[in-house]
Design goal:
369 residues, alpha+beta, Creatine Amidinohydrolase, 4-stranded antiparallel β-sheet, 3-stranded antiparallel β-sheet, 22 strands, globular
Length: 369
């Protein structure tokens, strides 16, 4: 389950975002360009401390401008294809049914019973052999539940029906559906359709032919959380949206590939951004990955875009990577339910997520089965 980035990246002022979601230079003396800090001073230096001349700076700026323009054209072309083939209406909230019950004998996370959003725990979650075994069990269950949820995706099925089936499978396994009651979240799974970036609340809306839907499953088993999500295709989906989904999954794989003991966290965002930018997709900055274990959300915060945050991975540590890619704006609008986050311009979004364990030699994906 994606965590809202509570930590502002104030050390790296951003490009301002125009109404249509494209980036434009702000009045800041040190704007961020394509996610990396770039000073507009003529004394700008690059690796090696080699100062560039005015002429070279102009040439460099022109190249970056052409790259941004090419990305803009690609995004606009994909959006035109999607809008032309679009068989669904913009998302509207359906009827949300009451919370489903959980048997009294199932262990609940400590936040259940309060609608206050828990604070992010500052401690990294590093496990001994017993903790790792329990994390593997929670991750494997979450993966099985997600696979099952994917089999339910078809036109006319409601997201509420998916939630009900997922809820039953989780409690039948003796686990608790982690989203249920987290900060007041009313359902057992997140279902984010089309332009919904994340945290979609299951309701009475029926899935339509051509939809894409991210299903985000987290289970709490024997005191440990396993967290995973995937974007599924519903019926006949346009090639443009299929490509967005494919690249989003590849971005997750690129981020995982850099993980190992001692690797800096910022490498994750660098690799994801590099791959997304090849295809002109935006990487959402507001929602981040997070530490996970006995606590649902903790440090480290995993940024999926280029960043200069410090910190390195440690053997025995568990966290999620869960990039969200969009065809257009990376900004979002949050509905009055305080959860559902949709893209500012209505463009489609896709997300994939795994819970990971850092090992001595690399990384283990825990949310597989």
């Amino acid at each position: 389950m994606a965590l809202t980035a509570m930590l502002g990246h104030t050390a790296f002022p951003k490009l301002s975002t125009s109404f249509n979601g494209e980036a434009s230079l702000s009045s800041s003396n040190s704007p961020s360009f394509m996610g990396s800090p770039l000073s507009l001073s003529l004394s700008t230096t690059f690796p090696g401390n080699q100062s560039i001349s005015r002429k070279k700076f102009v040439v460099f700026a022109a190249k970056m401008s052409r790259l941004e323009e090419a990305m803009k054209i690609r995004r606009e072309r994909d959006l035109q294809v999607v809008k032309k083939d679009r068989k669904y209406r913009p998302l509207r909230r359906g009827k949300v049914s009451p919370r489903l019950p959980v048997p009294d004998d199932i262990l609940r996370p400590p936040y259940v019973g309060s609608d206050i959003l828990p604070e992010i725990t500052s401690e990294y979650q590093i496990h001994d052999s017993e903790g790792i075994a329990k994390m593997r069990a929670a991750g494997e269950l979450a993966a099985r539940v997600l696979n099952f949820a994917g089999t339910l995706v078809r036109p006319s099925v409601t997201t509420n029906e998916i939630d009900k089936a997922v809820h039953q499978m989780i409690i039948d396994a003796g686990a608790y559906p982690s989203p249920l009651g987290y900060g007041g979240f009313p359902k057992s799974v997140c279902t984010s359709v089309n332009e919904c970036m994340c945290h979609g609340i299951p309701d009475s809306r029926q899935l339509q032919n051509g939809d894409i839907i991210n299903i985000d499953v987290t289970v709490y088993l024997n005191g440990y959380h396993g967290d995973t999500s995937r974007t599924f295709l519903c019926g006949e989906v346009s090639d443009a949206m299929k490509h967005l989904v494919k690249v989003s999954e590849e971005c997750l794989e690129k981020g995982i590939a850099v993980c190992k003991d001692g690797a800096p966290f910022k490498k994750i965002g660098k690799r994801i951004s590099e791959h997304a930018e090849k295809y002109g997709y935006g990487v959402v900055e507001r929602f981040v990955g997070h530490g996970v274990g006995t606590v649902f959300h903790s440090e480290p915060i995993i940024n999926h875009h280029r960043n200069d945050e410090g910190g390195c991975m440690v053997e025995g540590q568990t966290f999620t990577i869960e990039p969200i890619l969009t065809m257009g704006s990376i900004d979002c609008i949050t509905w009055p339910d305080n959860w559902t986050a949709v893209t500012y311009d209505g463009s489609p979004a896709a997300q994939f997520e795994h819970t990971l364990l850092i090992t001595k030699t690399g990384v283990e994906i825990l949310t597989t089965c």
